[in-house]
């Protein structure tokens, strides 16, 4: 009788250890959320490494990227809203098997947005995900652009740029290759001027990055041009 009991206890102990074991390779846990900064413990990764946090309340995943470390704690920044996350949420590295109710699956990393003809006429978010309702984006034939161009190989600014705005052309002429900043208070027409430049300037390709704009203003800007 005692032998049967000890065997049962041995099996129960082993089962309990299996229940507490990580469900994935290198699984971590969310320890703290401070604003946009996420602190994760128990996950081995590197600077720039990507992972995903299971949002159990919504049944979704939040993609994150590692930005630093401190005494065994990895700091992550999220690509998606983190509202509703709670401490202890599982954090999985990408490109490794993850166990779920439907078996094991694998989430792939977020590819960098390529530059190429496929982007012409499209509206995408910062991760290259389409926002224009034109279907999934398949970025083929991308053009490889060096991340750090040699400053000695840049051509000098010697040719005037036709901005399409007569006030700029006549009073504050800009040149091709020149960087220009537009500084003004809120509500005085910076976005309007940007839309005028977009519609009227002489250029083969125009790339617009609306960083920090309100969602309403993004829609209005896309409709106005």
Polypeptide structure, described:
The chain is of the alpha+beta class. The protein has a domain at 2-106: Thrombin, subunit H (Beta Barrel), CATH 2.40.10. The chain is built from four helices and eight strands, in the order αββββββββααα. The chain has helices spanning 2-20, 166-171, 190-200, 215-224, and strands spanning 28-34, 37-41, 50-55, 60-70, 73-78, 90-93, 97-100, 103-106. The strands form two sheets. The chain has a six-stranded antiparallel beta barrel with strand order 1-2-5-4-3-6. A two-stranded antiparallel sheet has the order 7-8. The longest helix has 19 residues, at 2-20. The chain is elongated and about 95 Å long. The model has no long low-confidence stretch (mean pLDDT 80).
Q: What fraction, in percent, of the residue positions are helical?
A: 10-25%
Average predicted confidence as pLDDT:
80
Calculate the terminal CA-CA distance, rounded to whole Å. Answer: 83 Å
Low-confidence stretches: none
Can you identify the CATH class of the domain at 2-106? Mainly Beta
Shape: elongated
Biggest sheet: strands side by side, in what order?
1-2-5-4-3-6
Largest sheet, if any? 6 strands, antiparallel, barrel
Short description:
This protein is of the alpha+beta class and 225 residues long. Helix content is 20%, strand content 21%. The strands form two sheets. Strands 1-2-5-4-3-6 form a six-stranded antiparallel barrel. The chain has a two-stranded antiparallel ribbon with strand order 7-8.
């Amino acid at each position: 009788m005692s032998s049967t009991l000890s065997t049962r206890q041995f099996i129960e102990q082993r089962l309990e250890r299996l229940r507490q074991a990580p469900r994935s390779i290198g699984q971590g846990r969310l320890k703290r959320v401070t604003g946009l900064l996420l602190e994760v413990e128990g996950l081995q990764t590197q600077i720039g490494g990507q992972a995903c946090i299971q949002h159990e309340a919504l049944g979704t995943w939040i993609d994150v990227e590692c930005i630093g470390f401190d005494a065994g704690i990895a700091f992550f920044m999220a690509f998606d809203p983190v509202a509703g996350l709670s401490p202890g949420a599982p954090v999985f590295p990408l490109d490794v098997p993850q166990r779920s109710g439907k078996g094991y699956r694998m989430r792939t990393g977020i590819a960098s947005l390529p530059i190429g003809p496929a982007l012409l006429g499209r509206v995408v978010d910062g991760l290259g995900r389409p926002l224009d309702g034109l279907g999934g984006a398949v970025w083929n034939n991308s053009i490889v652009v060096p991340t750090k161009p040699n400053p000695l190989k840049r051509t000098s600014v010697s040719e005037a740029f036709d901005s399409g705005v007569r006030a700029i052309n006549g009073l504050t002429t800009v040149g091709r290759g020149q960087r220009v900043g537009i500084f003004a208070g809120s509500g005085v027409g910076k976005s309007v001027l940007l839309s005028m430049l977009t519609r009227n300037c002489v250029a083969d390709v125009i790339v617009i990055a609306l960083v920090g704009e309100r969602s309403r203003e993004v829609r209005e800007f896309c409709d106005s041009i």
